[in-house]
Amino acid sequence: MTMHAPQVHPTTERSALVDALRGLALLSIALANVPTGDALKSTHYIFLNSQAINPILEAAKHILISTKFITLFSILFGYGFYTQLNRATQWGTSFRRYFTMRMLLLLIIGCLHAYLLWFGDIIRYYALCGMALLVFHQLSTRKLLITALVFMVPVTAILFILNGLLELQRYSYDYTIPDRIIYETSYLNYLRDNFTIDPMVNFVQDSPITFAACFGKILFGYWLGRISFFQQPQRFGRMLKKWFWWGLSVGTFASVGYWAVSTGRLTLDLPLLWLPFVIAGGLVLHSLFYIAAFVRVFQTQRGKRVLLIFAPLGKMALTNYLLQTVFYLLFFYAWPHAWPTSQRISLAEVYLLTLLFYGLQVLFSHWWLRYFSQGPVEFLWKKMAYRQLGPGDRPASQISSIPS
Prior knowledge:
Elements: H1 16-33, H2 37-41, H3 54-65, H4 68-91, H5 95-116, H6 123-136, H7 141-165, H8 177-180, H9 187-196, H10 203-226, H11 237-262, H12 275-298, H13 301-307, H14 311-315, H15 317-332, H16 347-371, H17 376-387, H18 396-400
């Protein structure tokens, strides 16, 4: 395999576009991850009864949100790899050693998050895929794009089909655990159930598809950094136009198909074996539609002023992602206080409560970054990674700029 040194660009300021995009996407992550299953069964409400529109709310979540913004985060993670590689090259830092340690620390954070708080953690996949990226990052720009597309579409679709054909979704644990875990009043029992249904624990059933899809999207994000997409989006007007219209059409169709399959409305029989390939590619296109629409709005003066509100949230995205889990547990699970809120309010109120919390996160992020240059988890993560470097490898100017 022919290897090529990656292109290095001059250091630029942190991308406000990327931070704003990541910050706004955190809203969709919050809405996608709120446990709504029990809320759907609830007939209680405080001021807003949503029983009539519950199916619409659930369908809208599947079609407009599910997988699209995790895709976006994966792409931005790959772009972050590019920026770190670019800066390390200019500073003369041992990037491979630094980034490996950074990913190992992220893996530890992800494991603590998954096994002590919530099984739905995605951080562990990013950490492992990030280390795998070190093997591929020297591919030529063209081969990088081809490899990314192969992982995102055919590999993901084939693994999905094999998963169904081999009946790998048959778990060894009690199928009622995911429904009842929200009612566990004992933290120890919650930990046991949380570990039992964890995707990494049930690796064969749950993780191969996630790894393939995440890795392809991370590679794609690194490719976008290589071609300077986020640095100079005005150069890619034609590509943005294609993303917008193909994502709006094919992407929406694929998202509807994904909703139909995931909710059991459509069974993938032999004549429909082509559909997973369309869904895998279409879901990526739908995510690219969101990116294209965001970039278009950001390029206008008024739109940029509005969207920059979300930049501080994205600048400390890891901190805010973990805070969202704390919010879920405090308000939607029983073990912290012996009663789940989602049993006492309507689905619409669940979403309104999530929007309120997100608004508080925006305010918190703006306040925090008035006094510090990064989020608390980001600071500790970076500081611990730098400590593993020798004095000659450590960019002193960066370390001294980090607040204590």
